[in-house]
Amino acid sequence: MSKITIIGSGNIGLSLAKGLVKSGQYMPTDITLTRRNIANLQEEAAFGFRVGDNNAEAVLHAEIVVLAILPQQLRNVLEEIRGTVHVSQIIVSVVSGVSCADIKQVLGLDKLVVRAMPNTAIAIGQSMTCIATDTATDGEIKEVERLFESVGAVVVIQEDLMTSATALCACGIAFFLRAIRAASQGGVEIGFHAHDALKMAVQTAKGAADLLLQTKNHPEGEIDKVTSPKGCTIAGLNEMEHNGFSSAFIKGIKLSAEKAGGLYSE
């Protein structure tokens, strides 16, 4: 009997499935993957995952159903499965901009829905996933947390903050990548070959992030260790700030949050 069904086996769905197997929580045979064209799941089938294109059938015996589809596909999928999902299942939605209430409106108000917002680093097991719900118990939330801890870090938040989480964590991947790209371009300007400059920028960014994760220090505390009086670091930082570095970053996150809030309604 399948324990988990993932509907929509794109990048996020497949990354979650592989992460769950790698963590030892599930065997491939415990996981059913669905896709409209199952020819694209041959590799996964060979690995031992159950695959299919009938969503209604796939959810029948699952304990957890993950909806990993695009917002515009959601209504059709919910209509397909509404007759076979039941109250003992946890429905996990990773669909942007769609509330628990939106999903219950189609599946029934008695259904248990938890929202999750991972980012593309899920592909390497380094996602920052935010989780929210309206009525799930602590135990049920813990169950969903365990799923996503297999592919990165998890924070449980209020549901009204999910669009903000989309901007900071999902869109945020692109913001930090652009910052790294800019740093590498600066490196080329001061004399490094492009491939060396990129490698140096990437590792420096990774080191900065790991420094905060492992020491749990505030960024400004670590910045103070690098900035000496009349030094080159503070000169560079102040030049960036005079040109709106922090302000531009903050404004970008705010605008992304506004856009994320309208995805489903559009």
UniProtKB/TrEMBL annotation:
Keyword Iron in record: no
Entry's Gene Ontology cellular component terms: cytoplasm
Positions contributing to NADP(+) binding: 68-71
TM annotation in the entry: none
Catalytically driven reaction(s): L-proline + NADP(+) = (S)-1-pyrroline-5-carboxylate + NADPH + 2 H(+); L-proline + NAD(+) = (S)-1-pyrroline-5-carboxylate + NADH + 2 H(+)
Family in the record: Belongs to the pyrroline-5-carboxylate reductase family.
Protein name in the entry: Pyrroline-5-carboxylate reductase
Highest rank taxon of the organism: Bacteria
Principal location: cytoplasm
Compartments in which it is found: Cytoplasm
UniProt feature coiled coil, ranges: none
Pathway the protein acts in: Amino-acid biosynthesis; L-proline biosynthesis; L-proline from L-glutamate 5-semialdehyde: step 1/1
Pfam families hit by this protein: F420_oxidored, P5CR_dimer
Domain Pyrroline-5-carboxylate reductase catalytic N-terminal: from-to ranges: 3-96
EC number: 1.5.1.2
InterPro entries (UniProt xref): 6-PGluconate_DH-like_C_sf, NAD(P)-bd_dom_sf, P5C_Rdtase_cat_N, P5CR_dimer, Pyrroline-COOH_reductase
